[in-house]
Specification:
Layout: H1 6-9, H2 16-33, E1 40-52, E2 55-70, E3 74-88, E4 94-112, E5 115-123, H3 129-133, E6 157-169, E7 174-182, E8 195-204, E9 209-218, E10 224-233, E11 240-248, E12 252-261, E13 276-287, E14 301-312, E15 316-327, E16 332-346
Antiparallel strand pairs: 1-2, 1-16, 2-3, 3-4, 4-5, 5-6, 6-7, 7-8, 8-9, 9-10, 10-11, 11-12, 12-13, 13-14, 14-15, 15-16
Keywords: Plasmid
Length: about 350
């Protein structure tokens, strides 16, 4: 799995232009309706490769993001994915797949400093990877953890409503929350499973430590519960970051732990050595039974990823990694490389 978005886009290529058109209509409406609230266009452009068992897959991709404020309380936001995939075929040639779809399209209405009401098609707030690390310009690795699909209801997207915000905010701690309900939607462009759940997180600013818990329940077909826990830590006055997540479902469970350290202490963040960022990720999945895969390996699997990223000027990053995966189904090596450029600019000059 080279890109997390490939997990959710296979069945979305037929009517994808319709969703892009919806975003364009919203964009134009905002532009001519309220020019002083300037929308921002952001996102990333990348070229990624993955080599497994001597066969290399090439994936050029674009992930544009639109954030369009309408007045002081309403924000329209959306992210799209345009992906080309060239993978080795049995006859020695390459298979080509093409995907265009919106990752999400939602409206956020800020009621107060403690409550934002979200409606539309949104990323499920289960764990942290789906909302925070799937953009290619943020993540340290070009593929998602092995347990990513647990709790994501097959598409990692909900269509319905969500409440989120800061429940308590103090000098020494804060607690934020997100609670959602998703309806069953069979349309390919807004496909979603009937489900409910949410996430709560405690943040300690002096320790720069976040601990959170997630829960959601599938309300469609076989009803199942999913549980998650995450710990993020960024020690003060260091360039070290630790991210981790544990998820558990009815048929499987797993965890990942990721650490990275930018060598900016050696000459500053703009020096050639200060731009180097070693990364390591440890992960394991465990089977509770083999009735349903939940998108995880059908046998107990462990994997270690070793990466070396380089942060070039002008928001450009080079990603390289080597992974060794161990399981009863066979051990394998995975080599991944990529170059990603992050862009950000206003749609037009604001007043």
């Amino acid at each position: 799995m080279v890109l997390p978005i490939l997990n959710t886009m296979t069945a979305r290529s037929i009517q994808s232009a319709q969703r892009i058109s919806v975003a364009a209509i919203l964009f134009c409406a905002v532009r001519y309706g309220l020019a002083q609230d300037t929308p921002f266009l952001s996102g990333g452009v990348g070229f990624l490769t993955a080599t497994n068992a001597g066969k290399t897959t090439y994936i050029p991709t674009i992930q544009p993001l639109l954030a369009a404020p309408i007045g002081p309380h309403l924000l329209i936001e959306s992210r799209a994915a345009l992906v080309e995939s060239f993978s080795p075929a049995a006859d020695g040639k390459y298979d080509h797949n093409h995907f265009i779809a919106l990752t999400y399209l939602q409206g956020d209405y800020t009621v107060s400093s403690h409550l934002t009401v979200v409606g539309g098609s949104f990323l499920l707030p289960f764990g942290t990877y789906n909302e925070r690390l799937t953009p290619i310009w943020i993540s340290n690795f070009s593929d998602a953890p092995l347990n990513f699909n647990l709790g994501q209801m097959s598409s990692a997207i909900g269509t319905g409503g969500m409440l989120r915000g800061s429940a308590i905010s103090r000098r020494k701690y804060s607690i934020d929350y997100a609670a959602f309900f998703s309806s069953r939607v069979g349309n390919q462009q807004f496909a979603a499973t009937r489900a409910s759940g949410g996430r709560a997180s405690l943040y300690l600013p002096e320790k720069r430590l976040e601990i959170g818990f997630s829960y959601d329940r599938s309300l469609q077909g076989i009803h199942e519960n999913f549980y998650g826990m995450h710990v993020w830590w960024e020690p003060k006055d260091t360039a070290f970051r630790l991210r981790s997540e544990f998820t558990r479902g009815h048929h499987a469970q797993g965890y990942w732990i990721e650490g990275d350290y930018r060598l900016q202490k050696l000459g500053g963040s703009d020096s050639w050595i200060g731009r180097i960022e070693p990364v390591i990720r440890m992960q394991q999945t465990f089977r509770r039974d083999t009735l349903v895969s939940d998108g995880l390996p059908l046998v107990n699997t462990e994997r270690i990823d070793l990466g070396l990223d380089y942060n070039l000027p002008h928001n450009t990053r080079i990603l390289t990694s080597y992974a060794r995966q161990f399981s009863a189904a066979g051990n394998e090596n995975v080599w991944e490389t990529g170059i990603v450029y992050r862009f950000l600019f206003p749609a037009w000059k604001g007043k």
